[in-house]
Design a protein that fits this description.
Oligomer: single chain
Strand content: 5-15%
CATH class of the largest domain: Alpha Beta
Order of helices and strands: HEHEEEHEHHEHEHEHEHEHEHH
Number of strands: 11
Bound molecules: phosphoric acid mono(formamide)ester
Number of helices: 12
Strand order of the largest sheet: 9-8-7-10-11
Largest sheet: 5 strands, parallel
């Protein structure tokens, strides 16, 4: 593996999940693999889990870590041929090459603007770093994908499942702000690659891109969709068709104890309590969101290990 920008960069997903679970049992077994190697984490947006878990994962592999909140530095230009006499002070062509001299691996977080579908779909920030950096790139959540989260989710589901082919339902839940599609997109792609009984439920108007969902069943009846679920993955996203819009915040779609029954409840966090998921679920044994967040470290660690082995 030479980069990790999509879940499909993993050659053998099932094997990688098992390797991550083995790493969790013995996290320091490769503690010198990253000696004298540096990971630079570039954040265009906020983070709690991604930032700390990726740093922790790198340090367990013996790597040095440098973190840059890129909005605190020079305003980057991404377009070719721009006359840079306005707000942007440095072109990504120079920035990516310069950072590559300080880093052996660069990880990037850059959310979509949710205003221009084509611009977000172009993944111009992530792809500019892929084009101009001279070291491997890791996606820490881009405009359309969050593969580190999806690998984490696959690890968590594998650990949690008590039957061979669990029923996994991705459900939309309400949220006051317009949120990206990245987590849901990568989760869908990952579930499609695993041996699970997978479906999606969301209100009308909130269907994800058909390029992502493909043949995955989509129901607009949450109650029906959640029947007999083993694992309920809760996430909000803004409308894809009416791009980036919050069409409504129907509280009837909030996840409650009554709806979840005996299923395990997952969410990538952060979660707005009593808007997305009610307290009774998050405070119950059904909630595995803390275990899920812990697995962010082992997902990052197996990805960094694989990249280090291919440097
Ligand atoms: N789930 C997730 O990516 O969390 P952060 O945004 O806090 O990194």
């Amino acid at each position: 593996m030479k980069k990790f920008t999509t879940i499909h960069d993993i050659e053998n997903l099932s094997k990688t999940i098992q390797e991550a679970i083995a790493l969790k049992a013995n996290p320091f077994q490769y503690d010198t693999l990253g000696k004298h190697k540096t990971l630079v984490l570039l954040f265009f947006n906020s983070s709690l889990r991604t930032r700390l878990s990726t740093e922790k994962a790198a340090k367990k592999l013996g790597m040095d870590v440098m973190i840059l909140n890129i909005n605190n530095t020079w305003n980057l230009e991404f377009k070719d041929g721009t006359i840079m006499n306005l707000q942007t002070a440095e072109h990504v062509k120079e920035a990516a090459q310069v950072i590559s001299q300080y880093a052996d691996i660069i990880a990037v977080r850059a959310f979509p603007n949710l205003k221009n579908k084509e611009e977000d779909a172009s993944e111009y920030v992530l792809k500019s770093f892929m084009k101009y950096a001279t070291v491997p790139i890791v996606n820490m959540e881009s405009a359309t994908a969050h593969p580190l989260q999806a690998l984490t989710d696959a690890i968590t589901i594998t650990e949690t499942a008590t039957k061979k082919r669990p029923k996994v339902v991705l459900t939309w839940a309400p949220h006051p702000k317009a949120l990206p599609h990245a987590v849901a997109n990568s989760f869908v792609k990952t579930m499609q690659a695993l041996d699970v009984d997978f479906s999606i439920t969301n209100p009308e108007g909130y269907d994800l891109s058909l390029d992502i969902t493909k043949n995955t069943p989509i129901s607009h009846d949450q109650e029906e969709a959640l029947k007999n679920a083993d694992i309920v993955y809760v996430k909000n996203w803004s409308s894809y068709n009416q791009y980036g819009q919050v069409l409504h915040q129907d509280p009837n779609w909030m996840i409650t104890q009554e709806k979840i029954g005996s299923a395990s409840c997952m969410h990538c966090l952060p979660v707005r309590r009593n808007v997305v998921i009610e307290d009774a679920v998050l405070d119950s044994e059904n909630s595995i969101v803390i275990q899920q967040a812990n697995n962010r470290t082992f997902a990052a660690q197996i990805v960094l290990k694989t990249l280090l082995e291919h440097l």
